[in-house]
Amino acid sequence: MAKLLIFATFLLVISGTCLATPDTKIESYVVYLGAPSADKSPEVLQASHLQKLSSIIPSEEQERVSLTQSYHHAFVGFSAMLTKKEADLLSGHEEVISVFPDRVLKLHTTRSWDFLNAESGLRSERLSRRASNDVIIGIIDTGIWPESPSFSDVGMKEVPTRWKGMCMEASDFKKTDCNRKLIGARFYSNQAESTQARPPSNSSQPQALGSPRDSVGHGTHTASTAAGSAVTDANYYGLAQGTAKGGSPSSRIAMYKACSLGGCASSAVLKAIDDAVNDGVDVISISIGMSSIFQSDFLSDPISVGAFHANQRGVLVVCSGGNDGPDPFTVVNTAPWIVTVAASSIDRSFQSNIQLGNGVLFKGCAINFSNLTSSLQYPLVLGSEVAAKYTPVSEASNCYPGSLDADKTEGKIVVCVSTDATVSRRVKKLVAEGARAKGLILIDEAEKNIPFDSGSFAFPQVGTDAGTQILAYINSTKNPTAVVLPTADVKEFKPAPEVAYFSSRGPGGLTEGILKPDIMAPGVSILAASIPSTDVGTVPPGKKPSNFAIKSGTSMACPHVAGAAAFVKSAHRGWSPSMIRSALMTTGTFLETN
Fold first, then answer.
1. Is 403 labeled as catalytic in the residue annotation?
2. What residue spans of 80-143 are helical by DSSP H?
3. Hey, which of 312, 352, 500, 565 would disulfide with 460, CB 3.0 to 4.6 Å?
4. Which of 491, 509, 530 is the last residue of a domain?
């Protein structure tokens, strides 16, 4: 009977697939119509958009004549659920500039700002005398955790009267969560799920609820990096201790939650840009982007379209360049009117010492809070030596899921390599931890200076040189042993800054004549505010969830530049986006790279 049910289900799936042909499949599309007209109100524009939809959607499906988003501030357009055939018909309208699928875009501190001050030879305390607190930074991201001390408004003056934004309420977010620092918070309920078919807005079916509150941590981190208030004694379970602050602590923050853990819908990002410009922000920070593999032209790239019109309205848009490096032609957000940011290291490293049984010490890169000590050594084995039954040696060496035999691995420190990029460090950690290993040493040249946060599990990474010596030690003795010590932070680490391994490289595919990225900023091991994590294994025993997190990516570099831009804007209120961009690029330190 069970076989019959499975077969029937299979037939249903196949028949459903056959019915949904590419031309009839209903998906979310964005329709871009260009600059706004002063003589048309939002109501008139929306009526016009609905009329366009009515003209191409069959009469028997008129319930689909509904706008999922309407753009009418900085630019004009809308998003709606359409078939490919209907989208093609709309693109032929005289007023329509482009129609493109509503794609899902990817989500791409205590010392970083001090490091930038030291590198530039300037002191922000001296320059801040000229700064005002009327500059507003719009952050388009995953939301915000308003209780973080980084968003305290102590000592800040009243909100600028030019501000036209709002603080949207939800079951877990009240208007009182906004203050004179966090002056605005919006959310868009059709986040990454907007690319999937769903009932129109006038449907009787319940719609997804939302909130400006951050449930990922990404938006809180970027917002505090750009304009967080100074927080003394900030740290991540004792690491990176110091005073955390944003690049422009006197600036205001407006959060536009257009993203979730699954990504960011193009239509929501466009709406967020449209709202931010109309609300009165001065700078927009966007730490998200399209895939470097499937880049679109500027008229089909939602960030490019939105940023163009924001720039026309005097709003500077700063974007992350992507994390698909080190290969060339991987940089995204390359439109000439966008400030595209690459990521660099700073002069701080997080090291976890690996002490072998013969007394030799190696410095691994890691963030771990294990309780291992130098007084006790553990058996050291290769992944291939503790492989599960019938598992290929290559899979066990790479710590593939299910590749390790827990009975052989328990209580030992496993050495794995990374010859298959499809198995992430997080997966390798979970595999070793699930096999009851005492720790994991990863040998991998890629990202060897980008620490992975493994919580209470001992997990350092070394490059091939150190890895070769560790393997030689294992082969030189009958009973190899080792211990992995908890992480310590190392200041004044050299050389710094270096281009981060993961940072996407230029040139831009559509702008080979224009150098991209434009500028580089700290994006490796950046401490900033985050949501208090309660995930098992991430909080060290006996500790409370931290209000801060250490993250890496061009997502972290982008708000550094946005904060610097806001700082310049505060001292030169009349400067245009191009002038601010020029000031940042021409006063940056030139760095030669290989």
1. no
2. 84-91, 112-120, 124-127
3. 352
4. 491
Of residues 73, 218, 221, 309, which has the active-site annotation? 218
Which residue did the predictor score with more confidence, 533 or 426? 426
Judgement on whether residues 260 and 335 belong to the same structural domain of the protein = yes
CA distance 383 to 406: 11
Catalytic residue among 70, 251, 555, 570: 555
**CATH number, domain containing residue 433:** 3.50.30.30
Question: Cα–Cα distance between 134 and 504 in angstroms, integer?
Answer: 34
Q: How confident is the model at residue 463 (pLDDT cuts 50, 70, 90)?
A: very high
d(CA 335, CA 316): 13
- Residues 239 and 297 occupy one common structural domain: yes
Q: What is the mean pLDDT of residues 195-220?
A: 61
User: Using the 8-state DSSP alphabet, how is residue 331 labeled?
Assistant: -
Q: Check residue 115 and give its pLDDT.
A: 43
CB 139 within 8 A of CB 250: no
The pair of structure tokens assigned to 16 is 């459903």
**CA–CA separation, 292 vs 288, rounded Å?**
12
Do 117 and 218 lie in one domain? The reply is yes
Let me know if 218 is a catalytic residue: yes
The pLDDT of residue 168 is 96
What pTM, to 2 d.p., does this model score? 0.86
- Round to whole Å and give the CA distance between 570 and 293: 38
Q: Give the model's confidence band at 594: pLDDT under 50 very low, under 70 low, under 90 confident, else very high.
A: very low
Residue 555 is among the residues annotated as catalytic for this protein? yes
Does pLDDT of 192 surpass 50?
no
- The 3-state DSSP class for residue 519 equals strand
Domain boundary among 101, 116, 139: 101
pLDDT exceeds cutoff 80 at 492: no
Question: And the tokens for 498?
Answer: 């270096």
**Domain identity same for 432 and 444:** yes
302 found inside a domain = yes
Residues 84 and 156 in one domain: no
Q: Is residue 338 part of a domain?
A: yes
**How confident is the model over 110-135, as pLDDT tens digits?**
344 444 444 444 444 444 445 556 89
Same domain, 503 and 483: no
- Separation CA 368–CA 313 (nearest Å): 46
Please answer whether residues 333 and 340 qualify as being in contact, where contact means their C-beta atoms are separated by less than 8 angstroms.
yes
Please check whether residue 44 lies inside any domain of the structure: yes
pLDDT at 293 over 80: no
CATH of the domain at 248: 3.40.50.200
Tokens 């660099």 correspond to what residue? 344
- Tens-digit pLDDT profile for residues 130-157: 555 689 999 999 999 999 999 999 999 9
Q: Are residues 388 and 257 in the same domain?
A: no
DSSP state of 404: B
Q: Does 9 fall in a domain?
A: no
As a whole number, the mean pLDDT across the chain is 86
Query: Which of the four pLDDT bands, split at 50, 70 and 90, describes residue 421?
Result: confident
Query: Which tokens hold the place of 573?
Result: 């209120």
Q: Give CA torsion, residues 520, 521, 522, 524, to 10 deg.
A: -40
How many domains are there within the chain?
A: 3
Quick one: DSSP state of residue 57? Answer: S
Same domain assignment for residues 115 and 232: yes
Catalytic residue among 141, 214, 274, 453: 141
Domain that holds residue 485: 348-491
